[in-house]
Amino acid sequence: MAVTLNPFLAKIILKLNPFRKFLIVCKGYNEDYENFTELVWQDDKDLNFNDRISYTQFQLWVMPKITEYKQSKIYA
Question: In terms of residue numbers, what domain contains 55?
Answer without folding.
Answer: 2-75
